[in-house]
Automatic annotation (TrEMBL):
<dbReference type="InterPro" id="IPR013785">
    <property type="entry name" value="Aldolase_TIM"/>
</dbReference>
<feature type="active site" description="Schiff-base intermediate with dihydroxyacetone-P">
    <location>
        <position position="210"/>
    </location>
</feature>
<feature type="active site" description="Proton donor">
    <location>
        <position position="178"/>
    </location>
</feature>
<comment type="similarity">
    <text>Belongs to the DeoC/FbaB aldolase family. FbaB subfamily.</text>
</comment>
<dbReference type="GO" id="GO:0004332">
    <property type="term" value="F:fructose-bisphosphate aldolase activity"/>
</dbReference>
<dbReference type="InterPro" id="IPR050456">
    <property type="entry name" value="DeoC/FbaB_aldolase"/>
</dbReference>
<keyword id="KW-0704">Schiff base</keyword>
<dbReference type="InterPro" id="IPR002915">
    <property type="entry name" value="DeoC/FbaB/LacD_aldolase"/>
</dbReference>
<dbReference type="InterPro" id="IPR041720">
    <property type="entry name" value="FbaB-like"/>
</dbReference>
<protein>
    <recommendedName>
        <fullName>fructose-bisphosphate aldolase</fullName>
        <ecNumber>4.1.2.13</ecNumber>
    </recommendedName>
</protein>
<dbReference type="Pfam" id="PF01791">
    <property type="entry name" value="DeoC"/>
</dbReference>
<keyword id="KW-0456">Lyase</keyword>
Amino acid sequence: MPKITRDQVKVPADVLADARETYIDNYMKATQGTGRLMLFACDQKVEHLNGDFYGEGIDISDSDPEHLFKIADQGVCGVMAGQRGLIARYAADYPNVNYLVKMNSKTNLVKTAQDDPYSPQLHDIEAVLAMRDNGVNVVGLGYTLYLGSEYEATMLAEAGQLVAQAHEEGLIVVLWIYPRGKAVGKDEKAPTTIAGAAGVALCLGADFVKVNPPVATEDKTSAENLAVASAAAGRTGLVCAGGSTVEAKVFLQQLHDQIYIGGASGNATGRNIHQRSLDEAVRLTKAISAITLADYDVDRALAVFNGEEDFAL
């Protein structure tokens, strides 16, 4: 199992001296002491409304928002990401979960054909710090940025300021960067576009960046193209969005290839986990973490998912 020590954490220079140990604490918590991120993404109740939580093919337990917290509490996750209000409503009952507060969100009702995407920041960092001071286990912040949108400049400024403020407080930052808008068109998952997004995250100072996997090309698989983006990200760890729910073995193979071929520093998975029953979702978090945090191969991780082998950090 890959492990890092506290002195191996590369603390950014914008982390103030009196926040250095807090930053290291939060980084080690979020990555389970491995340097890799297993992010349980639970921000879709705004992003995709209720369509991701109720309907055909979705376990009925997902209609209850507390399902997300039960999974994070009983499963093996590095950090659970969600909006401030969602976390505020349930965190007192789940104090051991590591939380990453998503600072901005928008719904999917306004399409790009109507207007380029812009996801404004919903509150200032002081509201999150107040929750942390009140005992909520907040280890980081998240922000979604749509490169190529006509509102790109505003989001770049918001994200840059947020990273600076978070680091001053010893918090880690994960940027969701999705190239999207009329200027991007159908190239939002092109390898060069994804690699560009990864480089932007580095220049903004993010600790991790969440991107969509690039499409395969004639000469390279998606994972091979992802390796270019991972290199462009430098010391910003790159993780891939999990996407829509697929069969477990297919998902675990994709995840394995993203990390061990594409150089990803973990994963960011939402629907593939929470649309399942509690038992199945918990087992999948363990299988994902076995690959991400413990270097399991796909067959062994699948055995964890099928309940044939237990996994715990």
